[in-house]
Design goal:
It is a single chain. By secondary structure, this protein is mostly beta strands. Helix content is 9%, strand content 40%. It has a five-stranded mixed sheet, with no helix packed on it. It has a four-stranded antiparallel sheet with strand order 2-33-32-31. Strands 3-4-5-6 form a four-stranded antiparallel sheet, with no helix packed on it. A hairpin with a 2-residue loop joins strand 3 and strand 4.
């Protein structure tokens, strides 16, 4: 019986219990309800890279469309370091990572109030691994993930931290201490994912390349598998079959490996190669892979095999990950051209040039696509227009390479120096 069900049952029984038993029951009610609240993730929360389902799609409505910097900046807050990681949002709290210091060896994790941007708590740790990276990126490149009770954050130095949502450290792992050759001279960027209660850490590089499944309660290895020795900045996708069984879909230059999250065993392998920068997009049982342009793979109902549905060389994404929404697939190339195609056939329907370049990936909410350029220009595309239409634009004037978060009627995006909340005044 789930905690919520147990709570409801006890409430129904309360009037029928003797007084002394009722006092005992009240204590149990309080304990059970606290457990329910601690592990609850609401539908509007943004819990990991590209959202709770890793697809960049939000059901939020009422976001501003015709952007105005005077009307729609609810707040902006200086950060103690730079970063490419996306913010997470849980209720009225926003979590973000940053790396500070001249060597980016001060690893920062912050919790802010979504209401006014005030700092609720701020934790700082020293990096144990390498802080070497390209000048354009940051040690705070990977996006954290949360299960509603704990926050898991990994940095390019391969230092992994688990905190509760009040900022108390529960455990940490210096993965480079355990695996000293696991490093990338340009910097790591793969974000953590959670699947069946297992933290999946993708540490792929030119030397000691691996993926590990970690116990979220202790951080210890449950399994570890070797991976292709090549730099890889993609983030895994989690697929759930009709039976409810999950698989982690690992992307690399060798294609897609579907693995079991509890063992790391490979279930199937698509071997026709894939990009090492933009990640795949999943919609239902179709995986849209940046491979030979863009390739649609249909995963079988039991999750044990796949078939190729279509492939289009005209939909090749650049740095930004593709996005599947309703009946269309969207791909943004390195020239700043957004392509829209039919999701069932891959046939391109229209193109729209945006002001690029783009380091982060777009999100969709309320039939509008939101994307931020590296120059700091926010652009909103009306997806209901026959050829797409740029319905809003706003220049924040700072380098932005992260994918935005969406929650509670607002967008949250971070630059190299600030985090911004973008919302209608009436939603504040």
């Amino acid at each position: 019986m789930q905690p919520e069900q147990r709570f409801i049952l006890l409430v129904k029984l309360a009037p029928k219990l003797p007084l002394n038993n009722f006092k005992i029951m009240k204590k149990h009610l309080l304990i059970i309800w606290l457990v329910v609240l601690a592990g609850r993730v609401s539908a509007g929360d943004w819990t990991g890279f590209r959202g709770p389902f890793g697809n960049g799609v939000s059901d939020e409505v009422g976001l501003p469309v015709k952007l105005d910097i005077e009307k729609h900046i609810a707040w902006k807050v200086e950060l103690p370091g730079k970063g490419l990681s996306s913010p997470l949002v849980m209720g009225n709290r926003v979590f973000v990572t940053a790396s500070g210091g001249t060597r980016q060896d001060r690893l920062q994790i912050l919790c802010l109030s979504s209401i006014d941007g005030s700092v609720i708590w701020h934790r700082q740790f020293w990096a144990m691994g390498s802080t070497m990276c390209h000048s354009k990126t940051s040690i705070a490149a990977p996006t954290p993930v949360t299960d509603g009770a704990s926050l898991f954050a990994i940095f390019s130095s391969n230092d992994l931290f688990c905190l509760d949502l009040d900022g108390k450290l529960k455990w940490l792992r210096g993965l480079t201490v355990d695996y000293p050759n696991a490093r990338n001279s340009l910097g790591m960027a793969s974000s953590l994912v959670l699947s069946s209660g297992v933290i999946v850490a993708q540490v792929e590089n030119d030397s000691e390349s691996f993926v590990a499944g970690l116990d979220k309660r202790s951080g210890r290895n449950l399994w570890k598998i070797n991976r292709p020795k090549s730099a890889n900045w993609t983030t895994a996708t989690v697929h759930k079959s009709k039976s409810g069984k999950e698989q982690v879909l690992l992307q690399s230059g060798k294609g897609i490996h579907a693995i079991e999250p509890d063992s790391g065993n490979v279930v199937w392998h698509y071997s026709d190669g894939a990009s090492t920068i933009p990640s795949s997009a999943l919609k239902g049982n179709i995986l849209y892979v940046p491979s030979q342009g863009l390739t649609a793979l249909k995963i079988s109902e039991d999750g044990k095999s796949f078939t190729q549905k279509w492939r289009s060389g005209r939909l090749r994404p650049g740095t930004a990950s593709p996005l599947a929404y309703r009946n269309h697939i969207y791909s943004l190339n390195n020239a700043g051209v957004l392509a829209c195609a039919d999701i069932d056939s891959g046939k391109r329907l229209w193109q729209l040039r945006l002001d690029g370049p783009f380091g982060g990936s777009p999100i969709v909410a309320g039939n509008h696509l939101y994307v931020f350029s590296e120059e700091g220009v926010a652009q909103v595309v009306d997806l209901t227009a026959p050829e797409g239409d740029i319905s809003g634009k706003m220049d924040l004037g700072e380098m932005i390479q992260c994918s935005p978060a969406v929650a509670n009627g607002a967008l949250y995006v971070r630059s190299n120096s600030r985090i911004w909340k973008i919302a209608r005044k009436t939603r504040l």
